[in-house]
Amino acid sequence: MPTRIRSNGMSIALVINQLVSTMLAGIFLPFVSKHGYSSMFFLFS
Q: Which end of the chain is more exposed for a tag (fewer CB within 10 A), N or C?
C-alpha cells in the first residue's frame, strides 16, 4: 500500500488502541473490586 494510506491507517489504529487500553484500565479495578479476579479473567476469555 502507498505510504500515505498506510500512515493514515496506522494513525487510526493507534488512536483506537489507546482508547481501548484506557477504557480497560479504567474498568478493570472497579470490576475486580465488585466481582473478583476470576470473573474478570473469565469475561476476557
A: C
- The three cell numbers locating residue 18: 489507546
36 Rama sector, left if φ>0, alpha if ψ -120 to 50, beta otherwise = left
How many angstroms separate the CA atoms of 25 and 27, rounded?
6
Please give the radius of gyration of the chain, using alpha carbons only, rounded to the nearest integer: 16
> The whole model's pTM is what?
0.69
- Going residue by residue through the chain, which has 45 residues, state the pLDDT in tens, using 9 for 90 and above: 788 899 999 999 999 999 999 999 999 999 999 999 998 889 888
